[in-house]
Amino acid sequence: MKLSDYLVLLSCFLLFYETSGGFGDVPENGPEINNGSKEFLKALQKIIGERVEELIDKRSEELFLKLERKIENVTETNDQIKDLLQQQAPTLFHYTSFNTQFSDVQSKVTRDCDKLTNKRKIKLINETEHYIIQFISNMRSYVSKTKTAIQTGVVRRYKDISSDVDAISLKTSERLDARINEVFRNYSNLELEVEQTIVFFATLSENAPQNDEIVKFDNVITNSGNGYSVTEGIFTAPLNGLYTIHCSFLVVNGYVNVELMRNDNKIGRGYAAHKRHETTGSIFVTTDLMKGDELYCHKLPDYSTGLIRGDLYTTFSGYMIR
Fold first, then answer.
1. According to the UniProt entry, where is the signal peptide (predicted)?
2. Positive or negative: CA dihedral 171, 173, 174, 180
3. Three-state secondary structure along the chain?
4. Which of the two residues, 218 and 16, has the higher pLDDT score?
5. 309 and 203 Cβ atoms separated by less than 8 Å
């Protein structure tokens, strides 16, 4: 059996037969068991104890041997290190000496570099200061020359501009005077045009004939601007402008077609018919007229069977808008 097996048996034994003073021999006043069992347990306890002691002794001996080997290895390694140190002692001495010399050289080089650096700095500062002073002097000279040139150019340019301004002022003054005179002339003409309001209004006193003749509105109510001719029944535009023309007529016994003419060209037509009652036709036109254009109304005989009634029922009127 292995040691672990003996330990398991021992643990089971101790759990079942525990005493108040600890673990030891089988108790005298414990649970009743036969004499053979007691002897077996005692024998088992003895065997386990002997086996445990044997294993402990064996394990201790193995550990002691391993420890001795470790000590021997360490001792051997120490001897090797001592031999190596003895062999490398001259080299270590030379290295220590070299390290000391190198530190001295390094310190000296550092001090020399610091001295050279300081001298170089001072030299650079002096050179830079010299360059700055020279640059400032050159800039002052350049600024002075530039200032003088600018002043001279400004004065010359001012004189040129003054001459140009005087010439322009003279020409502008002449043009403004001419323009003002023209505006006043136009204004005067406009006042005259405004004062000459163009408007006319005329009516028919008697019934108009049936032939192809101009309807002459013989009863003139208004004729501002003297554009309407009562003898001819024609309105002649006194001025260029936009005009509104209106013709209204009452028909008796039949139907009537009336045309509004401008310089013998039709620009409007009206129609009316008398059935149970008399009816009125009309023409309303807004048109541009040039000075001298003629407007009039005439009845179409081939398309008219009735009469155009007078007695102020038929009118012809117009006025200039602008």
1. 1-24
2. positive
3. CCHHHHHHHHHHHHHHCCECCECCCCCCCCCCCCHHHHHHHHHHHHHHHHHHHHHHHHHHHHHHHHHHHHHHHHHHHHHHHHHHHHHHHHHHHHHHHHHHHHHHHHHHHHHHHHHHHHHHHHHHHHHHHHHHHHHHHHHHHHHHHHHHHHHHHHHHHHHHHHHHHHHHHHHHHHHHHHHHHHHHHHHHHHHHHHHCCCEEEEECCCCECCCCCECCCCEEEEEECCCEECCCCEEECCCCEEEEEEEEEEEECCEEEEEEEECCEEEEEEEEECCCCCCEEEEEEEEEECCCCEEEEEECHHHCCCEECCCCCCEEEEEECC
4. 218
5. no
Q: Which CATH number does 198-320 carry?
A: 2.60.120.40
CA dihedral 287, 264, 295, 239 (to 10 degrees): 70
pLDDT of 213-241, one tens digit each? 788 999 999 999 999 999 999 999 999 99
Burial 105-126 (b: 16+ CB within 10 A, else e): eeeeeeeeeeeeeeeeeeeeee
pLDDT at 269: 93
Q: Residue ranges of the domains in the chain?
A: 198-320
Query: What tokens were used for 43?
Result: 């024998």
Chain position carrying tokens 């004729």: 223
Rounded mean pLDDT of the chain?
79
Distance CA 309, CA 289 (A): 29
Asked if 286 contacts 186 with a C-beta cutoff of 8 angstroms, the reply is no
Higher per-residue pLDDT: 150 or 295? 295
pLDDT at 195 > cutoff 60: no
Q: How far apart are CA 56 and CA 60, in angstroms?
A: 6
pLDDT-derived band of residue 36, with 50, 70 and 90 as boundaries? Answer: low
